[in-house]
Amino acid sequence: MRLDVYRSCTWREKRQVLETFWHSGPHTSARIQEAAAQYGPYAIAALALVAIELAVIFGVALSHHALISWIALVIEVAVLVSIRWAVVRTRSLSCRSI
Fold first, then answer.
1. What is the pLDDT of residues 4-54, one digit of tens each?
2. Among 49, 58, 75, 78, which residue's CB has the most CB atoms within a 10 Å radius?
3. Chain centroid offset of residue 50 CA
4. How far apart are CA 36 and CA 9, in angstroms?
């Protein structure tokens, strides 16, 4: 996994990369799309780690604090939906960059 194009982007370009990655509508330059495609696997990995952490919190809190466990479960569902969208966008951007 490379991040050379993403790392060479300016702060403004990185904002465009995030917008291109998370939203399917914007049409940007090939450089921004390549950087977004490189960013995808890292976004998925980071979200997966958050999902694992929330699963542990849910498991521990389930036997102690019902409210915290339900909050963790709701956030877990949101993170899983985000992972699914990140996978879809990564595949879409990877197909465009080929």
1. 899 999 999 999 999 999 998 767 888 999 999 999 999 999 999 999 999
2. 58
3. 10
4. 11
What distance in Å separates the CA atoms of residue 11 and residue 53, rounded to the nearest whole number? Answer: 29
In order, the DSSP letters of 27-63 are ---HHHHHHHHHHHHHHHHHHHHHHHHHHHHHHHHHT
Structure tokens at 90: 């990564």
Of 95, 93, 98, 84, the closest CA to residue 39 belongs to 93
Q: Which pLDDT belongs to residue 8?
A: 93
**Residue 73, Cα to own-chain centre: how many angstroms?**
18
Mean pLDDT of the 59-67 span: 85
User: What integer is the mean pLDDT of 69-73?
Assistant: 91
Contact 7, 31 (CB under 8 A): no
Instruction: Report the C-alpha gap between 81 and 52 in whole angstroms.
Output: 14
